Amino acid sequence: MTTNTYIHGIGMTKFGTHEDRTLKDLLLDASRQALEDAGRPKVDAVFVGNFLAGSMSNQEILGAIVANDLGLGFVPTAKVEGACASGGIALRQAVLAVMSGEHDTVLVAGVEKMKHAKTAEVTQAINAAMDTDSSEKSAGLTFPGFFGVLANRYFHETGASKKHLAMVALKNRENAMNNPLAQFSKATSLEEIMNARMITEPLGLFDCSPMTDGAAALVISRKPSGIHIKASSLVSGPTQMQDASDLLSIPAIGESGRRAYEKAGLGPEDIDVVEIHDCFSMTEMIAIEELGFFPRLEGWKAVEKGLTKANGEKPVNTSGGLLSRGHPIGATGVAQIYQLVRQLRGDAANQVEGARIALAQNLGGTGSYSAVHILERV
Amino acid sequence: MTTNTYIHGIGMTKFGTHEDRTLKDLLLDASRQALEDAGRPKVDAVFVGNFLAGSMSNQEILGAIVANDLGLGFVPTAKVEGACASGGIALRQAVLAVMSGEHDTVLVAGVEKMKHAKTAEVTQAINAAMDTDSSEKSAGLTFPGFFGVLANRYFHETGASKKHLAMVALKNRENAMNNPLAQFSKATSLEEIMNARMITEPLGLFDCSPMTDGAAALVISRKPSGIHIKASSLVSGPTQMQDASDLLSIPAIGESGRRAYEKAGLGPEDIDVVEIHDCFSMTEMIAIEELGFFPRLEGWKAVEKGLTKANGEKPVNTSGGLLSRGHPIGATGVAQIYQLVRQLRGDAANQVEGARIALAQNLGGTGSYSAVHILERV
């Protein structure tokens, strides 16, 4: 079924490096912006998406901190975790809270602070999104390693090459250059991307999302507004690579898309603008296929034709995506909605003319979670 | 309003030290028991309460792990965190998920594994339940320190003494001796408790809940069963000691109780059996007052009269409580419900004759969260 929830306000900090600001400072900043944008409504509950604050900042109880520091009173709050999908899952819980009839207006925020730590520490912390009891994790599999294997297999099965991944990265960088909140605004070239330092064969530096500090927030309500949350879906999928029946499918993405389309009574052809979880360039390639925008194993052809550019027939990641807008993990799923609301309001970076229906897809782990939200301008 | 949810199954591992079992093993064990007890229903969603697995076991994505390893398919799952209230909050999210109409049957699990780490590491990890930006945390305040201050103030304001706290600890140990799943089953005496090693003045070793490994799980459903979740409430409160207007009140406990009573259409006098969050003996003392079982600043008199014993007029922590059943943080709120369901079914450790209405109260931080659930045998 569709939801009875609407988006009333959005907020977002700049994504990037915030040496002088704490996790809490970022979280409260985005939350205050969203509340201001919504006209300072009475808030009935708070959900915060976050992945690493416990292990990397010795800071949990983020829900209570928001309620306390913003003076919201005795409202129910919680932190929600589902690896890189934490933000999308937090929105999903907020939607359920409104649908339950217990709450009218809910604040959703996502936050992460990663740049204060060494890369090796972050890599270790992020590996909490793998199953510790599995042989894969103990054997040294990392997330770049996983998506690198998929990319090699994709090249083997299709006519795609490293150039097509570079075209994804270049498109997202070009989009980010118009987004003042994005982490990266420096121009680059296909050549620079293809020759960049190798991270894990065949993925180079530009094929991998960066470490990022940042926060984003939303206010949703049962009270109608101009933007309806037409569908909210969340699914869990295999937590281990060895459970995958097909290396070129991430089943959670496809299933979350099908469920969302069914709830919304829409299909992929109806979507005007998309934010996809491009943690790696290869992930965007698979996701545009899983979500039905392009046929299986043919996403690379669409990329080659420029169909996913902001002015293409299916604009993907007009924000710059995880690759160039940045990926403060718990904030990412919320920031996707921020960009789509701007699109539906008509004042986005890389505005898609007349955008009316928008889809966000947020991935956790190697396919352990996928959350999809479909928004409609009403 | 009341809820339309019922409890169909319960499961719990022994609480204590599980050197040879992983976090996942404990989590799946309790979950399988609950599913078996519920008659192996189709599960539509999973919520896992957990606090420390990211920082202490490098393991997140617990929701997806449960779905994957139990073969539940593409069900939505999430981990929920609210410090020591994580388990109660997970149940609350499951109740909202059923009330939303999106899900019929939901698995709720809570888990923690702490005994593999050194005490100092655990203390550090647990301090994530304080506000890192506050001067209190950087000044060295810990949880025993916080509750120690409250105890000293309580002694100052009332006629209570260390003996009354010891009586709480002794009662809970005596209850635990009849609970085969409890961490501690060794008999003790008031004298031993009062002379035990000091942790923080005036709280000795027996006044403080232990480090514990363990897991608990529940299956709830819209389909009626013999046990109705009559009320579910969750509130956030002050996250810092300096925000407390009164050292002898933990406002979140009182407010969560009042909201639950209102939803249930009941009062404290209607409750037959109680599980309270006795992270310290002093916390139980305050909670029995905040929940309206005894007048403010007079809980110690009730304890002295034995009114909170299993055969008293208001039996509290018949499981042994956090102090003696043990406190595997994320599991605690779920284990409270486990004990109360056993009470309502009539086969509990320290069975209260004819128990029909039960209340669980689960605290997070120094009062950052309090969740209350009221169950009724129908």
Extended strand count of chain A = 11
Largest interface, counted by CB within 8 Å of the partner chain's CB: A-B, 68 and 68 residues
Shape of chain A: globular
Q: What's the number of helices of chain A?
A: 14
Order of helices and strands of chain A: EHEHHEHEHHHHHEEEEHEHHHHEE
For the report, how would you describe the main beta sheet of chain A? 5 strands, mixed
Specify the CATH homologous superfamily of the domain at 6-117 and 212-221 in chain A: Thiolase/Chalcone synthase
Oligomer classification: homodimer
At the first level of CATH, what is the class of the domain at 6-117 and 212-221 in chain A?
A: Alpha Beta
- What is the rounded distance between the termini of chain A? 18 Å
* Percent in strands of chain A: 15-25%
Low-confidence stretches of chain A: none
CATH architecture of the domain at 6-117 and 212-221 in chain A: 3-Layer(aba) Sandwich
Average pLDDT level of chain A: 97
Over the alpha carbons, how many angstroms does the gyration radius of chain A reach?
A: 19 Å
The helix fraction of chain A, in percent, is: 25-40%
The CATH topology name of the domain at 6-117 and 212-221 in chain A reads Peroxisomal Thiolase, Chain A, domain 1
Classify the secondary structure makeup of chain A into a structural class.
alpha/beta
Main sheet: strand order of chain A: 1-7-4-2-3
Keywords (chains A, B): Lipid transport, Lipid-binding, Transferase, Transport
Protein name (chains A, B): propanoyl-CoA C-acyltransferase
EC number (chains A, B): 2.3.1.176
GO molecular function, one term (chains A, B): lipid binding
